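Reader question, answered in our methods column.
A reader sent in the components of a multi-part assembly and asked whether the whole thing could be modeled at once rather than chain by chain. We filled in our standard form and ran it. Here is what they sent:
COMPLEX SIZE: two components
ENTRIES:
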Amino acid sequence: MAQSATTTPEAPRDSVALRAKRLSRRRNTRAALLFISPWIIGFLVFTAWPIVYSAYLSLTDYDVLNDPSFIGLENYQEMVEDPKIRLALWNTFYFTVLQVPLYVMVSLGLALLLDKAGRAAGFFRTAFFLPKMTPPVAVGILLLLLFNGQDGLINTVLGWVGVDGPAWTTDPTWVKPGLILISLWSVGSSVIILLAALQNVPQELYDSARVDGAGWWQQTFKITIPMISGALFFIFIVNTIAAFQTFTEAYTAYFGAGNSTYSNDAALFYVIYLFQQGFEFLNMGYASAMAWLLFVIIMIFTAIQMLASRRFVYYEGEQR
Amino acid sequence: MTAGPVGAERVEEPKVPPTPVQTPPRPPIRPRKPKVTVRKVLILAALSAFTLLFIYPFIWLLSASFKPRGEVFDNKLIPDTFVFENYINVWREAPMALWMWNTVFVTVLAAVTVTLSSALVAWGFAYFRFRGRNLLFGVVLATMMLPGAVTMIPVFLIWNNLGMVDTLTPLWAKNLFGSAFYIFLLRQFFLGLPRDLFEAARIDGANNWTIFSRIAVPLTKPALIITMIFEFQVAWTDLLQPLIYLRDSSNFTVPRGLKALLDQYGFGGNWHWEIVVTASVITTVPMIILFFLGQRHFVQGIATTGTKG
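And here is the structure of the entire assembly that came back:
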């Protein structure tokens, strides 16, 4: 702006520059929208419209073959009375409440060990991550094989130490603990996240803590955990959302064609029941109402965790 | 690749000659150094035990796939009778080659399309400054929190109306429009590039497309590879979508086929678990190979999403 002061008078120059600027900004916006357009289309077609339509469907009776018929809140009323909803919710809460803390604790424990492993850490990290690569269907099958009550590997090993292992895959009391245990097999990615966070903790903090006479216990709980609380919170929240929607392993092991030989009520998780209602019984309206209840539950839990995180989570710098 | 205990012996030896503990106080500048080797040995022993726990199921599965029907559950590390038949039988009992092809088809298309589209969108959010950008990006992030169950039924109805149920299209075509998680991931990488680079290119007369395709994309190749292998894994291992969309067994992906084999040979009165075990190995091995090919990228990608999320 300054260099042209000698030639042109004040007013026209400004307007030219302004116009050019406005033009370039408009071009800029247009170019940006062009780049973003795939997502905008996808969002409208595969997210926004489905949300609206799912809300509508939840107020209808719909079996795909006939047009949806509006029935108001009947689906929601039916859900209150449906004992299977109560069962599925109970199973899902049971799984989530036990699985998520265990999962986070195991990941944290392994990450702390790896952090101290020096040059060997890379090898162990690979070993811990491999199960995460296993397709969940195969994990469900491994569950049936390894946790088999009679000659499964788990009970065989338990037998060596004199423990008479339960019938993990058929006894309703032990079905969910078995599913929780096998889910811990795939902690690998959380371990990697926590290890990366651990390696970012400045060494000076430990040095000065040691000078002040802090032991391992104090260093871990006063420095390490607060410093990685951001990453801990991240895996906590992501795993909670995932646990509420757990499906594949349990469905593989306990549901599907030809698998009505024993009671599988103990493994009826919410999304499994939703899938059955929607795609096996073709109660699409009812399944949509179920989806909305799940959505609300997840939102409430996430909001509670977010609020709690303000008190417990420390973000370095905080300005990002 | 060495086993745990061997690694333990190797790492144990100290790099620096050990200094007596009672030396006069020195400035604490030196990096952390193994102080107690006993502790280190214990840590490595614990890690080795966990490694066994994490790896043994693979070994068990692989070993069982070479056992005859009656010995699948004998829990022996080395099969008493070593048979290769199971692999031949799986191929004979199930259209394994067709399922494999279907899966490769879906997986490659899913990975390539999601990488291209997400890169475009991520670049749109990272490079340009326009009104409403932060709001729109907030919406992108918000869609990540949305449970898939909410959109599952209407999206099925879309494909149903297009007559595409029982084809492979619904399993990958959504990826043409980008995916929130990868948009977020790639934007992080694009934001890390020095802006001067693009301004310089613009002065040299490069247009928006050239800047994106000739400068930004080549510079973020690692991130694009991360996206591609992540999606490759997601698409390969998915069961829910194939359960919803695929009806005829000739359209099955490998995981869907594996579930069908389990239902037929595991529970369906046949009790041919050796077929199920062998098919599980066939389903899993490509993912193990993928991991070893892209190990560095997996680790880097996961660490990035976790620490910047």
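What stands out: The two ends of chain A are 33 Å apart (CA to CA). The CA atoms of residues 75 and 81 of chain A lie 10 Å apart.
Send us your own complexes using the same form.
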